[in-house]
Design goal:
The structure is a homodimer. By secondary structure, chain A is of the alpha+beta class. Chain A has an eleven-stranded mixed sheet with strand order 5-9-10-16-13-12-11-24-27-23-22, sandwiched between helices. In chain A, strands 18-17-19-20-21 form a five-stranded mixed sheet, with helices on both faces. In chain A, a hairpin with a 2-residue loop joins strand 7 and strand 8. The radius of gyration of chain A is 26 Å and the shape is globular. At the A-B interface, strand 4, helix 2, strand 5, strand 6 and strand 7 of A face strand 2, helix 2, strand 3, strand 4 and strand 5 of B.
Chain lengths: 530, 530
């Protein structure tokens, strides 16, 4: 009912402008659905089988899993809660890495690599750290056939081992700031998992820095949350709200946690990146000291900050629609797909030659492009397939286009005829300019759409009743807050919402706490979250 | 005795051409030596202390560890046998990754990511695989505070989990070839470890492919060993010998293993990369089948291939000398260091301005360059420091250079005056051309030198006695071989040498097995190895 149907293999051959793909049934080659874990039996796997993408409005979670399976972003691993990141999903992660690596180096950080096995005793050294992480640990107890004397933690995060090493490398103020980053896998024994969003093992980068003063550490923590914010807006087209976590939600071991919070398509919040001012918590626990300019021994001031493969999930859930994935051009592994269209054999050569030449033109201009020229699929099938894969632009080239020296270009984000423009010149400089322009338009329009969606789903509240009502409607509530941890936990218990952050952008004027009526310095944002 | 001494801080200020650094004592800020594991005590760490790089000829292993510690390539992790890869060492690995990633994609492979936790039962499915790997496994037995029902293996390699997934993704011949790669950490519980060469955890890439025919798999395995060979010669300047492993030395689970073998500075062999034709061994164990064009179910034919952070160790041990590290320009994180030299304050501005402008010129030309303009160190100290770090070229700029519009350029690989050229024009196009030229010269000369060294240390042998003599002299022995596994193991027991490979390049003409006197088709190379 209401699902998306892709035209059958034979019926769509001549259609130039398929109806918008919404509310049809999507027929695709069998993909093992993400939501079932049993092995596909050899005997049935080679048949064409119907696959359905559940409409987003009907069941957001089922839609999410269907998109991941059909777009071949990821698959379940054999161990409960683990995930195989497939090439198309991994390419999005690579695009994130590529951007971040440049920014990290520009801001003075070097990549390096720490071992993933951490002596259990390290985790116990920082009191709130062990409290936060010990329920989630995976432990290696046997190595090389022997029971180990000290069990090893598979890193859930690296503050402890980083401090162990920093203590050996940092001697004087001349060794500071020490600013490093690592790209690594981390393991957290999560009970409720969800591909990309929360898995037993995930990929991330973790930055770790040590500074001579509290001010420098604070500046660094703020700088990095700013790098993440810019990335979210400019690359991922996700209008995150950046701010400070409440004490309850602060990272285990941090003095202050800064966060970027993104609103998903179901209006739940996703914590998409965090930057922690660790103060001297770890340096005191590990004795990480330096000799200052006056010859005095001081503990260093530290930060750590991370984004992970969770961000890929955030992109899916921010932009995707009933037709499937929708990728922001700047992170899309494939920005343009060319679908050549011919009926008769004598048309084929001309169409394919023109398609290749268009491909080369775009590729030379740095655009990520491919041709799908298989004749085992109809153009209509391909249209829907690449829409489902979220490719921002489609170029169609048929015999009439070849004779007129033009192409047809369709935008993924504007369905049907509205998003389709005929008669774009094939002339290289004109075409490249047009395509780049359109990619930028798609990029901006995704951000605009997500921003409008976000803003229409944040309600300003001034009392606990208003807050409860907003949350019950599935929205985010923004209201003045100066109450304590206990009241915050009460809100969570009663509404399911938590304080996502005290946003950096604050309304002016005097405020009264929505819970206590006392004067408040800041508004907080409350929402249900992943 | 005989160790390398770096000029004291104050004594070297005006010297333009320090004596070759050989056989002096190297004085550097305290670096925690790699070879001691105790924690540096806070109270003593801020002093300047003498550090010694053991001469290579005196104790190759001690030299290797000293270079790694002093050049800050790596450090010991807190868990026995683990290694922290520090920024300078990691940057070499990043240069390897950057090159390889392009080659892998050019040859049709996509990156992806498999979970590192593998159910123990998987490892047991392929008989020789479990035999090869079970002594080296790290096992996770506790997760989230609970004893696990099935213990998990921390991946030592991923053939098993890859096949588990391939079985679900491969249905028909249209899904083949399936060609993927992952960059990942792997864990092998090694008893005798050595930084970069053999550590409990290391970083690598592992390619995995599945094909419809035995021929395609063989072609792929050969293609990838060829990619590694080209990389070794052209980027790392290491004249590896590529060939086939003997049955005894074949990877656990492979039908054939191809290898590249490098001769280190102590003439021990290092297996620097391998490519395996897995035949149908894993596809039979995991039921990885496809329906061929005739509708018949067939097992896929597979390959896997890997290089690891071990390669960084290979680079150190191939090119390094008594002065420290010597990096091939194409993989050097820093290709050129600029050392500005001034005595009087009124000279400083001119020298620093010229240095900056030279830096910008080179940087704009894509050359990796930095200026060391600290005045806390003498030029002489810096000369030796960057020689120890293996930077291929050094540019000196003093007041006289500024007035003549020239610079002095020294090659790391040619010590002393011989490697030093005065009066190179600062004019950008001339300077860039000169520097690029010199970098290429260093690159070729490293390869040439290593090739000469290799060739003068391979002895053609025709009898077991000759083999024993060659090995006893520390050389590689190359001789005709058609004897069995038992004889091969006897050679190992009696000489310590193993068959490194049957090289692809074979002498022509009839041959007689050096051990049995029977006719032989091929020569094998025997050597002691890491």
């Amino acid at each position: 009912m209401g699902a998306l149907r892709l035209p059958a293999l034979t019926s769509f051959f001549t259609v130039r402008s398929p109806a918008p793909a919404i509310k049809q049934r999507l027929r695709l080659p069998l993909r093992r659905p993400f939501s079932t874990a049993e092995k596909v039996v050899g005997a049935v796997v080679d048949k064409e089988k119907e696959r359905v993408i559940t409409p987003r409005s009907e069941d957001f979670n089922a839609w999410y899993l269907d998109v991941i399976a059909n777009a071949e972003l990821a698959d379940y691993g054999p161990v409960r809660g683990t995930m195989v990141i497939r090439p198309y999903g991994y390419a999005i992660w690579e695009a994130i890495q590529e951007y971040m690596n440049v920014k990290f180096k520009e801001t003075g950080h070097s990549n390096m690599y720490f071992p993933q096995f951490i002596p259990y005793s390290f985790i116990e050294k920082e009191a709130s750290h062990v409290e936060g992480f010990s329920p989630e640990l995976a432990l290696v107890t046997v190595g090389g056939g022997k029971e180990l004397e000290e069990k090893l933690v598979v890193r859930p995060t690296s503050e402890t081992i980083v401090n162990h090493m920093f203590t050996q490398w940092i001697h004087s103020y001349r060794d500071l700031p020490l600013m490093i980053n690592q790209w690594a896998n981390v393991t957290r024994w999560e009970m409720r998992t969800k591909p990309f969003i929360r898995t037993l093992e995930f990929l991330w980068q973790e930055g770790h820095t040590a500074h001579a003063t509290a001010e420098e550490a604070e500046e660094e923590a703020m700088q990095m949350i700013d790098v993440y914010t810019k990335f979210a807006y400019e690359q991922a087209a996700i209008p995150v709200i950046a701010g400070r976590k409440s004490r309850v939600e602060t990272f285990a071991g941090a003095s202050t946690t800064y966060t970027i919070e993104a609103m998903m398509g179901d209006r739940k919040a996703l914590q998409a990146g965090t930057s922690h001012n660790l103060g001297q918590n770890f340096s005191r626990a590990f004795g990480t000291q330096f000799t200052d300019e006056n010859g005095q021994r001081q503990h260093v001031w530290q930060t750590s900050w991370a984004i992970s493969t969770r961000f890929v999930g955030g992109i899916i859930m921010t932009h995707g629609d009933d037709a499937g994935l929708l990728l922001p051009p700047r992170l899309a592994p494939l920005q343009v797909v060319i679908v050549p269209i011919w009926k008769k054999d004598n048309e084929k050569t001309g169409v394919l030659t023109a398609s290749s030449s268009v491909k080369e033109t775009l590729q030379a201009a740095g655009i990520k492009v491919k041709i799908d020229d298989t004749d085992q699929r109809t153009p209509g099938w391909k249209f829907n397939f690449y829409e489902m894969k979220g490719v921002p632009l489609r170029i169609e080239i048929g015999p009439r286009d070849v004779s007129s020296g033009t192409v047809v270009i369709s935008r993924r984000d504007v369905p049907g005829k509205q998003g389709k423009v005929f008669g774009i010149s094939m002339e290289p400089s004109a075409l490249v300019a047009y395509v780049k322009d359109k990619l930028n338009e798609v990029q901006s329009s995704l951000l605009e759409r997500a921003t409008t969606f976000r803003d229409s789903n944040i309600v300003d509240v001034y009392s606990y009743n208003e807050l409860k009502e907003a949350i019950a409607q599935g929205k985010w509530a923004r209201g003045p807050w100066s109450a304590g941890d206990e009241e915050e936990l009460k809100v969570k218990e009663e509404t399911g919402a938590t304080i996502r952050c005290f946003p950096f952008e604050q309304p002016e004027g005097p405020k009264k706490c929505l819970m206590t009526g006392n004067s408040a310095d800041e508004v907080a944002i409350f929402a249900k979250s992943y």
